[in-house]
Specification:
mainly alpha, 2 strands
């Protein structure tokens, strides 16, 4: 296709994404209070049932952010579909077969990461961070989380864990593209551990408990990615050998 046709096709795909996001935002904004109530369940489960806001516009903007947050989650399948429909015509059948599993695994891994953040990491982090309440030097210290502050905390956890859980997909794509090899990933394990803690420091709130809750799963995911890469690499090598032997057989 000429360059102009590619740009027109890209524009049409982006318009579908924007339309899906706008419709999703309208629906999610209507249910924003219900969604926010779901987000605050980890806080309620540890005995805190009070949130405050001091800015007169804060509660409204929190509802907007909640609607946008939920809309991004809901419309992600549309984004993934439009990306696939844009790049698929330029791929050979073998390339489509190789790339499609990665595209399907992306939302699954994101959901796993988000679930771990919501059901596992957030309650532990909240208990630790809110455990400093009490008498400090004769002064009562009480935690009064704000609605906006808590929303930033929860979305940072959910998005951070969801994005971080894409590590196996990223590593397998890099290996499949020939950018890195299994041997390089295996020998660079020590650097990967350091990178996991750096990523955890960036993607989570600045406390050691939250960082450990993300860094440790990242290290485990790295090891699982190595196992998967080793398995798929052996399988591809075997297929190549079989195809070569078949071509070499006399008719």
């Amino acid at each position: 296709m000429p360059l102009l046709d590619h740009l027109i096709e890209l524009r049409n795909r982006l318009l579908w994404c924007v339309l899906a996001l706008a419709i999703s935002f309208g629906i999610c904004f209507y249910f924003a209070q219900t969604i926010y109530g779901w987000l605050v369940q980890p806080l309620k489960n540890i005995g805190h049932d009070r949130l405050i806001y001091t800015d007169i516009f804060e509660a409204f903007f929190v509802q907007v952010k909640v609607g946008l947050f939920a809309a991004l989650m809901v419309s992600f399948p549309v984004f993934a579909t439009q990306i696939w429909r844009f790049i698929a015509p330029g791929l050979y059948r073998k390339e489509k077969k190789a790339f499609l599993p990665f595209l399907l695994m992306t939302p699954i891994l994101f959901g796993m990461g988000a679930s771990m953040a919501y059901f596992g990491a957030m309650p532990v982090a909240l208990r630790f961070l809110l455990g400093f309440e009490g008498n400090v030097g004769g002064v009562t210290q009480e935690a009064l989380p704000g609605v906006g502050n808590y929303l930033n905390f929860s979305t940072t956890f959910i998005f951070g864990f969801g994005v971080a859980f894409q590590l196996p997909v990223l590593l397998m794509l890099l290996e499949r593209a020939g950018i890195v090899t299994y041997e390089q990933l295996r020998d660079g394990r020590r650097y990967a551990i350091v990178g996991a803690f750096v990523a955890a420091a960036v993607l989570t709130p600045p406390d050691i408990i939250s960082q450990l809750l993300l860094a440790i799963p990242l290290c485990l995911l790295y090891e699982l990615a190595l196992i998967a890469i080793r398995f798929t690499h052996k399988k591809r090598t075997q297929e190549v050998v079989t195809a070569t032997e078949d071509e070499g057989e006399p008719a």
